[in-house]
Amino acid sequence: MLYRRLGSAGIKVSVLSLGSWVTYGSQVDTDAATQMIKYAYDHGINFFDNAEVYAGGKSETIMGQAFRKLGLRRGSYLVSTKLFWGINEGPNEKNTLNRKYLLEGIEGSLERLGMKYVDLLFCHRPDPETPIEETVWAMHDIISSGKALYWGTSEWSAEQIREAWEIADKRNLRKPQMEQPQYSLLVRTKVEKEFARLYEGIGLGLTTFSPLASGLLSGKYKNGIPKDSRFALPGYEWLQERWYHDEVIATIEKLRPIAESLGCTMSQLAIAWVAHNPNVSTVITGASRLSQLEENLGALDVLPKLTSDVLQKIDKALEPILQKSS
To answer: Is 3-215+274-302 assigned to CATH 3.40.50.720?
Structure first.
């Protein structure tokens, strides 16, 4: 396993990590989660990503149960959670980053996880109705209380991250350390262009998600939608609407011969491509079964094979999609 610093922080994260979005509570129970977390941990993964909203809180509960079963030394692994969407109804409990919600939200997450603290705490989305200064103060207080060690954002704009950082800098508060954006062969702009000045400017670290574009880049949708895939899950129809188009599938298939020439799968190629970016601290991968996790870890062997020539071939293969998204 390779380890990278989380931006300018002293903490190090495994370049590949394991997330629970969609899977825990929907496709994966506690026994399966325990098996996969152990396998990931035994192979060097030290970061496990979660969020309160995943499966309405069940994802945190399952992950917490799995870690208690394994009895791993708490200092040897990192756990994250994210707050914004909420799991309760109410004007101050949903789609917000107000102080009341954040202070109560972290308590709920820790209770479900059965942990004294999380290592990384994210503001899951920006909140246009709460002043950023209020959110920064609340996150600072959570860090100061020891209930989280670092805080950051997810799917915020560069402007919003910079504003939060400058408020914290001016008030001598804990600054946002990391951002969790979507990043893959198909989704590149935010990580490669919008955030470009933040990496050295404020030491921003990235914990990127969806390296396979919800499985699309694995090539498994070539002959239709598998029943056990994310596109087939109730409530995730929006994924299918966004990505499942004949022209997209056909373009992605052009990656297959490139992967074969490197002796890897399409999934491994896509994950390795994300990890190849030095600004990415860790690539959050997902798995609904152990065989997927085993395959994903094989991406580490592909990293040194991504020469400039191979990267050019990848971009040329995906040119029709990249031109539309640029």
So the answer is: no
